[in-house]
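Notes, p. 3: input format for complexes.
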Amino acid sequence: MIESKIDDSLRAKYRSLLPRELLEVFDEKYKQFTDVQVLAGLPLLTHNDAVVESPTGSGKTLAFALPTLAIMKRRGKFAANEIGAVILSPSRELSAQIARMMEPFAAALNYKAQVSVGGKKVEQDMKKLKMQGCDILVSTPGRLYQILSIDKSGEFRRSLRSVEVLILDEADRFNESQFEIQQDFC
Ligand SMILES: Nc1ncnc2c1ncn2[C@@H]1O[C@H](COP(=O)(O)OP(=O)(O)OP(=O)(O)O)[C@@H](O)[C@H]1O
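Output follows (186 residues plus adenosine-5'-triphosphate):
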């Protein structure tokens, strides 16, 4: 981990804004929040938009994941046909990694994250989202576009009305690789 440049009082302020359930999971795994987690988390937790740039390995995934879950918790339970957050990433692997890292934190709040990326039939994913419910959708731009394209009844679009948080992870790569985006139409 990269050496910290921020004050402990900022870290304490950030902690005070996070729900106890998330802190319990965090404290079991890690010693302290990284700088980007605190500096991105503070504006996000006060419902501001944020554009975040930070070195590789600085802990950006939890920097958006924890505030996302905390904001969802303020809203409470999401119905079976309601999505609380959408997280887009440029690749299938990154989407799976995000969902894996979020899983114990989401579970602590009884939220379920579903990954929908290329490689499987989109209809299969749609069925799974509908049957199992999905509080947090982790997807790629290509797959999300594909889901929207086959959503003739508008049911999926309606499920997005409850979205509290939209995350574009590594958004600078969204345009870089049309190839990967096209791949997700498979
Ligand atoms: N507060 C923390 N303290 C120690 N380790 C942490 C902390 N937060 C995250 N990590 C760990 O740091 C590693 C890198 O985290 P993450 O993948 O979120 O970094 P990143 O900034 O998104 O990197 P990249 O730009 O390569 O995707 C992971 O193994 C994660 O478990």
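The radius of gyration is 17 Å.
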